Amino acid sequence: MSGLVVARVETALSLSFHIMFAVFGVGLPWLLLYAERRWLKTGDPVWYALTRKWARVMAVLFAIGAVSGTVLSFEFGLLWPTFMSTYGGAIGLLFTLEAFAFFTEAIFMGLYLYGWKRLSRRAHWLVLWPIAISGTLSTLFVVMANAWMNHPVGLGVSHGKITADPWAVFSSSTSWTEVCHMFVAALMCTGGAVAAVYAIGMLRGRRDEYHRKGLNLGMAVILALAPVQLLIGDFAARDVATTQPAKLAAMEGHYYTSGHVPLTIGGFYNSQTHQLVGGVPIPDGLSLLLDFKPGAVVPGLDQTPANQQPMTAVVHLAFDSMVGLGTAILLITAWGAWRWLRSRRRGVVPRIAHTKRWLWAAAFSGPAAMLAMLAGWEVTEGGRQPWIVYQQMLVADAATKSTGLGWALLATILIYLGLAVALILILRKLASGSPPELARTGSETGPGIEPTPALEVTR
Fold it and tell me: The domain containing residue 343 runs over which residues?
């Protein structure tokens, strides 16, 4: 296998694996902040049980994420040496800041995990804030580096060498739209995963207060943020139209530059005829969305040389998948809002009854949010091809020229398979049975407090 093939496959595998843990590193600490605060205010042992359970999960995911992230850091230098030597000055500051954020997160993670019964109640809760903030910044600095690759700013030439202003990325609109889009996606993935876990438990008959509160918090996060993500996605698409018109054309399967461009829902892109097959067109839809004018001209792929066009069929399918899954979550949001308002008018409590249909919708929201996030990353990365730095350096020129790297790819696959198996076994163990905090009394009831009476769990 050539160095280019190995570099692309291994990086895609590593990024896809790592990003699924990075989103929980962003979202789970924020949910823990809310859950532990509720326990401190109410003394409710259910909130305490949720906090302890999620803290254990956070520790496991943090460890797996740290390992997969370390593998990625080595891959940048080994697989993409030309890219790093040429543009390392542009993104080096972001990775340095990311390292400091990660160190901060790791330090306070240790304090939080080993602080039960050793720190006061308030101090233990306050330790979560640096974890949540640094964990978020750690991920978002990396996302900013990717945004710079999509919209390189601050570049210059001095004495025949490329120079870069590392601070310029903070002034790029692409950086902020991509960062906001990813931050909300991470929270939605976390909320959706939490909701799915407790919804499945309730479908299996565990209709106790522990599962109800876990489900309600997870669903509240994903449903509240779904409309926000829609607005951010709209801003992001407008930015892409300005900075990467070829990517937008690939997302929409739009080949010929013209006005009155329809917005096509679904369909498959035919690379031979440059047409969408099987889609449902909305007349003037794309022109209206981008410029608020039905006759607005939208640049197509015909303005991009054939050897510089992205793989439109793949990018369009990924974009439709992301939008379709997001729309499904929005429909669940609308359904939940309607049920809540109807129950409120009638004075019914709870506002949203946990019927089987609602539980199945909640179970669907977790995988839907995660798949939408992964599809969005395929749009971001696949839509930039064949450039690694948009209109500056090709992927083929950035990759290593070394051969015989198939062993490295095999080793990476084996490592990730081992991590995945270990993670599944550990999480299954954590998820099985009733939380011990609800089934016993004793000294393990929280930092610096007296034992909490056991809670009667109703099956």
Answer: 3-156+164-245+306-439
From the number of C-beta atoms within 10 Å of its C-beta (0-12, 13-18, 19+), residue 70 rates as: exposed
208: left (phi over 0), alpha (psi -120 to 50) or beta: beta
Q: Of the given ranges (1-15, 24-38, 81-95, 387-401), which has the lowest mean pLDDT?
A: 1-15
Q: Is the peptide bond before 367 cis (omega within 30 degrees of 0)?
A: no
Q: In whole angstroms, give the CA distance from residue 380 to residue 374.
A: 10
How big is the chain by its Cα radius of gyration, in Å? 24
Least confident of 21-25, 313-317, 384-388: 21-25
Tell me if 320 is assigned to some domain: yes
Domain annotation covers residue 331: yes
Residue 23 corresponds to which tokens in the numbers above? 């989103």
Residue 99 located in a structural domain: yes
Q: CA-CA distances (angstroms) from residue 50 to 198, 227, 363, 364?
A: 11, 27, 18, 21
- The whole-number pLDDT of residue 371 equals 93
Q: Is residue 338 part of a domain?
A: yes
Whole-number Å distance between alpha carbons of 144 and 169: 7
Per-residue pLDDT, averaged over 260-286, amounts to 85
Residues 233, 184: contact at Cβ < 8 Å?
no
Q: What is the mean pLDDT of the chain?
A: 84
| Cα three-residue angle 267-273-276, rounded to 5 degrees | 15
pLDDT at 285 exceeding the cut of 90: no
Pairing of strands 387-389, 393-394: antiparallel
- Total domain count, the chain: 1
H/E run at residue 215? helix 209-243
Residue 81: is the preceding peptide bond cis (ω within 30°)? no
Return the H-helix or E-strand segment holding 331. helix 312-346
CA gap 255, 269 in Å, rounded: 10
Q: What is the pLDDT of residue 442?
A: 40
Dist. CA 202–CA 207, nearest whole Å = 5
Q: Which two tokens stand for residue 47?
A: 């909130």
What is the pLDDT at residue 449?
A: 47
This prediction has a pTM of: 0.88
Q: What is the DSSP string of 61-78?
A: HHHHHHHHHHHHHHHHHH
Which amino acid, one-letter code, is at 386? P
Q: How far apart are CA 26 and CA 141, in angstroms?
A: 12
pLDDT at 436: 62
Which pLDDT does position 454 carry in this prediction?
39
Contact 447, 115 (CB under 8 A): yes
| Closest by Cα among 294, 236, 242, 240 to 263 | 294
